[in-house]
Amino acid sequence: MTKGDTFYSKIFKLVLPIVIQNLLSAAVSSADVIMLNYVGQSSISAVSLAAQYASVLFMVFYGLGTGATMLCAQYYGKGDMQAVVEGIALRFSLAISLVFAGAAMFVPEWMMRIFTNDGELIAIGTSYLRCMSVCYLCWGITEVYLAVLRSIGRVMISTMMNVLAFSLNIFLNAVFIFGLFDAPKLGAMGVAIATSASRLVQLLACFVVSCLSKDIKLDFKYLFVKNKMLFADFVRLS
């Protein structure tokens, strides 16, 4: 095998899991709408509207993750620890996710009225968004940590995390939509509970990986580490 073939082989092994991971991140939200086909048109419409906020968060976290990945890879390649980068990314992601989570918890009706004036859709979307507030908060933390893992080549770990979240989300969707194992049929609220539960489990898995890792930690004390020059670079790259 030539050096060129070896290079492309390594790139493929890095890129494929990242592509799968990004697809699964988007698929977690899409799966909710698909499963709601078995509930009713109103639920599908309400969740589709409410899911627009998840789409916005996905784009924001993708940008933050890209900036964190580029800077972390650079510092890791030089043998420096990337705790400062992780702290800056967490600062942004937590601030944004707290805003969305707070709005979803306390003013979900207002969030739905941006898209529709239909009372039924607002009622369904309100219960959905209130349950999704937990998901938004967990998502803001996990996406940064998974981006840091990707930056040092541990793409399979981050991919497996998203596989875990996606699989659990599909399973819990089925449980709460069809009432499996004597569970109540909760409709749109059940889908939100399933999504939030899967994100919470994913966050707990990140903490487990962090505890087992010798160098890449998910530590909130990184939030208070400051570096003005690195902060400027992160904003520019994100």
What do these coordinates show?
With 238 residues, this protein is an all-alpha fold. Helices cover 81% and strands 0% of the residues. It has eight helices and no strands. The protein has helices at residues 3-35, 41-77, 83-106, 108-113, 119-151, 155-178, 188-212, 228-237. Helix 6 packs antiparallel against helix 7. The model is unreliable at 229-237 (pLDDT under 50).
Order of helices and strands: HHHHHHHH
Helix percentage: over 70%
Tell me the Rg in angstroms. Answer: 19 Å
The computed structural class is: mainly alpha
- Percent strand equals under 5%
List its traits.
238 residues; mainly alpha; 8 helices; disordered C terminus
Quick summary:
By secondary structure, this protein is mostly helical.
Helix/strand layout:
Elements: H1 3-35, H2 41-77, H3 83-106, H4 108-113, H5 119-151, H6 155-178, H7 188-212, H8 228-237
Helix pairs in contact: 1-2, 1-6, 2-3, 2-5, 2-8, 3-5, 5-6, 5-7, 6-7
